[in-house]
Amino acid sequence: MTDIRKLLATNIRAYRAELGLTQSKLAEKVETATHYIAMIEGCKKFPSAAMLERIAAALERDTPELFAMNPVQDDWKEEILFEMNEFIVKKLEYHRQYKTKPENGPKKLTGF
Fold it and tell me: Taking Cα atoms as reference points, which of 33, 29, 86, 32 lies closest to residue 61?
């Protein structure tokens, strides 16, 4: 079972980081104290429905997204797939250039 406070805290922190907001800036946007945001992110307080709506709006999200499982991973998926593709292309180009088989070439290609 998922601890809903931890899930909420993790998601608020992640969404806040995505927007480059400090706890202080988020608190300012939702018209509350920085300490209260810290308490929510520290799993010490659980916000009211009205506060959840204000936090979601400040984070440019729908309120249910504050309780989504693994939301950040979904946001990063395209970037990760792009980087993996670039790595594969570099690795294949290296082996074409040096006409080596993977087992004969370097064990690790850096620069990724």
Answer: 29
